[in-house]
C-alpha cells in the first residue's frame, strides 16, 4: 500500500479519497507501528498540516483514535493525523520514553518521531511549518519532549492530562517561541495538578516555563466555559497568556474538579478537548501566529469500511458475547456494540 501511494503522488491531478492506513517504520532496530489518516480533501498539489495524536501509558493508538475523534476533524479541516504506537517496557506496558517514570526505558522515541516526520513528508505533501503534536497523559509528556528536543520540526503542542518530567523540564532547549496548550483537571489522580516529586512537574510550573520562554504577558486573560453539563461535577476555564514573541500564546484549560480524562469523551463534558486542540493549532505555524479565524468543526459523512474491532482497552478482538466492543470504520467513526447471549 505504501508503494502504491508513493507512485500516485507523482500525478498532479490525483486526489486521495479519505483513508485510514496501518503502516510501519523501521527505526533503531525496531519495527514501529503507526496509523495514518488521509482526509478526503487531500491533494499532492497542496501541502497540508500534520498532527500527531499520542496515546497514554499502557494504552494504544487504536484506542486513542477511538476517543479523540480527530479523523472527523481532520476531514473537515484538511490535515493528516497520525497515531503512533509506543513500545513496551520490560514489564510489558506500552509507553513513550520521556524520562522520569519511564527512566528505565532505552527506546529512542525522539529519534523515532524525527524519522517519522521525514518518512511521512517523503510520502505525502506536508507543510513543514505546520507539524503539531498532542497526546493524553504519557502522550502529553512526549509532546512536551518533542517541543524541547526537535523544536525545529514542531510548530506547537497540546497536552491533555500530561506534564513535563524533571528530565524534560531541566533539559528543554527549544529554538523558537512555541505555542503550548495544557488541558488538565485539578483533581487528576494519575498526573497530579501539583506535580509529583522526582517524576512530574506541577502544571503551574510547566505553564510558567513556557510563559517565560515565549515572553508572554505574565497576567492571563481568563474566560469561563459555559457549564453545559452540571452532572459531570466539573467546570472549565480558559487561561490565555498573550503577546508572546512572534504572536504566540501559552494557554491552559483548567478543569476544576476534573480528573484524568479526555474532556468531551469522558469526564468534563462542557468542552471537547479534540476540538479545542485543533482550534489552538490552526492559529499557528512554526513562525508564529497565522491570524487564522477559528472556524466551525463539523463531522462529514463518507462511504466507510470496517477497519477493526477493539475492546474497551483498545485491544483488537473478534466478536464476543457479553462485552462492549468498538467498531472502527475507515471514515474515523466508531460504533459501540454490545452482544448478549
Description:
The protein is α/β, with parallel strands linked by helices. It has two domains: 301 residues, 3-Layer(aba) Sandwich (Rossmann fold); 36 residues, no CATH class. It has a ten-stranded mixed beta sheet, with helices on both faces. β8, α6 and β9 form a beta-alpha-beta unit. The chain is globular, with a radius of gyration of 19 Å.
Provide a concise account of the structure shown.
The protein has 8 helices and 17 strands. It has 341 residues and is α/β, with parallel strands linked by helices.
- Beta-strand level of the residues, as a percent range? 25-35%
Largest sheet: 10 strands, mixed
- Major β-sheet strand ordering: 1-2-4-3-7-8-9-12-11-10
Quick one: how many beta strands? 17
Mean pLDDT: 88
What is the CATH superfamily classification of the largest domain? Alpha/Beta hydrolase fold, catalytic domain
Q: What is the number of independent domains?
A: 2
Q: Which regions have little confidence, pLDDT < 50, spanning 5+ residues? A: 1-16
Which SSEs are present, and which pair or pack?
Layout: H1 2-8, E1 19-27, E2 30-38, E3 48-54, H2 61-68, H3 70-77, E4 80-84, E5 87-88, E6 94-95, H4 109-123, E7 126-136, H5 138-149, E8 156-160, H6 166-170, E9 180-185, H7 203-214, E10 221-224, E11 235-241, E12 250-256, H8 273-281, E13 284-285, E14 288-289, E15 306-310, E16 323-329, E17 334-339
Parallel strand pairs: 3-4, 3-7, 7-8, 8-9, 9-12
Antiparallel strand pairs: 1-2, 2-4, 5-6, 10-11, 11-12, 13-14, 15-16, 16-17
Keywords:
single chain; 341 residues; alpha/beta; Rossmann fold; 2 domains; ten-stranded mixed beta sheet; three-stranded antiparallel beta sheet; 8 helices; disordered N terminus
